[in-house]
Amino acid sequence: MRLPARLLPAAALIPTAALLTGCFASPGSGQASADGEDGGKRIRVAMMLPPRSGLSPLSDDAFKLSRWSTAETLVTLDEDGDAEPALATEWKQSGKTWTFTIRDGVTFHDGTKLTAQSVVRSLTVAATASPKPRILDGVELTVKAEGDTVAVTTGTEDPLVPQRLSSPQLSILSAKAYKGKTVNPVGAGTGAFELTQVNGTASATLDRYDGYWGGKAKAPGIDVKFVPDGTARAAALRSGEADVVEAVPVSQAALIDQDLITEVPMPRTNTLYLNTEKGVFEDAGMRAAAREAIDAKTIVKGVYEGRADVAEGLLGPALPWAADLRDQKVQRAKADDPEGATITIGTFTDRAELPEVAQTLQQQLQKAGFKVKLDVREYANIESDALAGEFDAFILSRATVLDSGDPAAYFYSDFATDGSFNISQLADAVVDKALKKAADTKAGDARRRAIMEAEASVLATDAAVPMLHERVIQGDAAGVVDVAHDPRERELITVDTYRK
């Protein structure tokens, strides 16, 4: 219901443009100037989510530090998810232990030198934190220095240790970051930009670090504002107050010069999970009937205004190798006649599109012969019921690669008999065997093939019906050059980014 103007709070009556006035004003006295001495211009960034944990790298705030090129990890990932050198130049495995050679000549922003002991300190803090960074959930990890190398030992052989260490939550910071009760990254990173000031959940300032081991950044600094309101972020791009804008809402994208926006495929799939343990969808023929009833193209066109990709499988275009390795001949059950069977579909309101997706699915499944009830709540109030199998079906927007950049963990958590996020209540020996093979295979082409075999085994059960792969819409002003468009959301402003 639209409220009459007299009932709206005063702030709601102020035009969005007015709320943004001064949003990216030049820093005041004692702070970095708006432009660099060499004529380069500072980059103004409008980010969606404010810090939740004071920019601690042990939290999801770590991805902000990574996107600003201020905190770095031992390794990074290439487009395919393979590990590449960063603060470590090489590594080798011997059983449960991986040995990493630490890059020479790297200094932290406070002037201290990166050493093997520095790495041990950062990784040990992460490994012993409570809660642990999620990339280490269930992983027993110990670290020790051996000369200019660091030995990382896990409780069981783990082929993904280098990929795990690429997680921004395992960034390496100087000793000063660990002096207080919480980890403070200000002035403690190794990246191209030094984090110099954080103003709570409002803003952050970074200046170019001229001693960066990877070469001098082209931009003199970054000025960040946290702008949770999507309409306000879009307005900042249109008005020229922001140079780079995160997550432009679909509803605002059409109002912006299309040359200023880029749709970045996300490793996130909107999926209908079907309860295989009890109820209507315990029967494979009924699951097949639901699959055949779904018209994902209509959902993409109607709900997402065409700014998403129809799913061919559980893994989408954010993983460029998936399509080439996908088995197009998955054997599935034949569809039965629903004959008026009643089902309840659950989903949540936290992602604005999902309730609308649920309504569209309701219509499609009813047309196919099902009777459909919807149960839509906030995620915090519905997750436990979903995991307990209280719904016949559940709509979820699910990240398909976790912090290691590898989908095997997602497949295991969602579809293994003992998976921690098994909403479909799936217990299938063929699937379990395929998942174990994928998890145990060494990183590289062989592992990717095993992962796609696991995907095929899941799709054959119809325990999950992938509908679409989401995109994030990023806004870049006309004068900004070489902004990163990263599906994993680890890069944004890099050493090569600058503003004309």
TrEMBL record:
What is the annotated signal peptide range for this record? 1-34
Biological process GO terms, please? peptide transport
Q: Name one Pfam family in it.
A: SBP_bac_5
Q: Give the UniProt keywords, A-Z.
A: Signal
**Family annotation (Gene3D superfamilies):** Dipeptide-binding Protein, Domain 3 (3.10.105.10), Periplasmic binding protein-like II (3.40.190.10)
Cite the CDD domains for this sequence.
PBP2_NikA_DppA_OppA_like_3
- Show the GO MF annotations: peptide transmembrane transporter activity
The UniProt entry, under PROSITE patterns, shows:
PROKAR_LIPOPROTEIN
Question: Taking every annotated instance into account, which residue ranges of this chain make up the domain Solute-binding protein family?
Answer: 84-419
Q: Name one GO cellular component term.
A: periplasmic space
According to the UniProt entry, the coiled-coil residues are none
Q: What is this protein called?
A: ABC transporter substrate-binding protein
Report the source organism: Streptomyces himalayensis subsp. himalayensis
